[in-house]
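Design a sequence for this backbone.
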């Protein structure tokens, strides 16, 4: 008996294009981050999207892409295991491996720029004085910079610079001296006052804050009670952290005039609208991308359709109906 010949793989990207709904009228989803205008408020979270996804999804429908965090010099990540799932979500301890600024410019930046949307370069460092030199070493590449002062898994303590308003002032002021491009400060969950941290970023010259990074967590293996991650601690992400981050976004948005970008457990357009209703002006999608690479584009399209269905010119008009004061 002769077996049937193998079928060619389905072109998921082409199918997704074909399924794009027609949006009646004009819906304005644009958002400004400093001097940068994004076509819509949806983008990936740093570390949760690589340029290779451009072969799978229509990235040009996103507002921007955010790179994996770039350090000044090459660095490896944390010891295995680097990722585990628990009932509350996903905990990762990748540790931000980086090819350094020079390696990023050579190997990755050309691939990001080919995607056809603004490129926001995430910048990392271990000490406040090390961020500005990384930006200088990037030689003006990118459309904006996100200062990652909040990664919880660079060391075993889960500490971060972004919990200290004075350290934020130092980081942002130094970065502002070396670039006139928009600066976004990615803040942590564990801060004594997210409002004070956001205000420090604004005072120092940031154009936006991103609230927030993953939550420091320590997952254990069942039965053995041994650490599930090689670094012992990692960052918890996923839908379980959304109510926590909603509160932080609400507090930050009430404290500052610059845009607040929400990041935490966003899977659908309704999740994004929740964040917009508490003051966010843009959203970043992280964990959802791993299971559903099309999640971000689905959110953009759903937001467009939701506005059209409600005869709203844009998101601001739509959420005025239920804004949380």
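Sequence:
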């Amino acid at each position: 008996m002769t077996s049937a010949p193998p079928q060619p793989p389905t072109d998921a990207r082409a199918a997704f294009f074909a399924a794009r709904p027609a949006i009646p009228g004009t819906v304005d989803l644009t958002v400004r981050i400093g001097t940068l205008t994004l076509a819509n408020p949806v983008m990936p979270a740093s570390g949760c999207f690589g340029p290779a996804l451009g072969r799978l999804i229509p990235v040009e429908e996103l507002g921007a892409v955010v790179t994996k965090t770039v350090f000044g010099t090459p660095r490896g990540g944390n010891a295995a295991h680097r990722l585990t799932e628990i009932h509350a979500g996903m905990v990762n301890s990748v540790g931000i491996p980086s090819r350094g600024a020079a390696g990023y410019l050579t190997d990755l930046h050309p691939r990001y720029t080919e995607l056809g949307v603004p490129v926001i370069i995430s910048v990392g460092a271990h000490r406040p004085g090390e961020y500005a030199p990384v930006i200088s070493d990037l030689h003006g590449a990118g459309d904006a910079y996100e200062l990652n002062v909040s990664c919880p898994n660079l060391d075993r303590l889960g500490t971060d610079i972004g919990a200290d308003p004075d350290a934020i002032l130092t980081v942002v002021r130094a970065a502002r001296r070396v670039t006139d491009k928009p600066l976004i400060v990615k803040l942590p969950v564990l801060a004594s006052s997210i409002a004070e941290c956001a205000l420090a970023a604004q005072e120092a010259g940031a154009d936006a804050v991103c609230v927030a990074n993953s939550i420091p967590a320590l997952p254990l293996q069942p039965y053995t009670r041994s650490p599930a991650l090689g670094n012992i601690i990692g960052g918890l992400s996923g839908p379980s952290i959304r109510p926590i981050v909603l509160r932080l976004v609400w507090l930050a948005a009430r404290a500052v005039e610059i845009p607040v970008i929400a990041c935490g457990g966003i899977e659908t357009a309704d999740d994004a609208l929740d964040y917009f209703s508490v003051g966010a002006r843009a959203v970043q999608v992280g964990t959802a991308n791993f299971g559903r690479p099309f999640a971000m584009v689905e959110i953009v399209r759903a937001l467009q359709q939701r506005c059209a269905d409600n005869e709203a010119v844009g998101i601001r008009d739509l959420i005025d109906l239920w804004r949380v004061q």
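Residues 1-9 have pLDDT under 50 and may be disordered.
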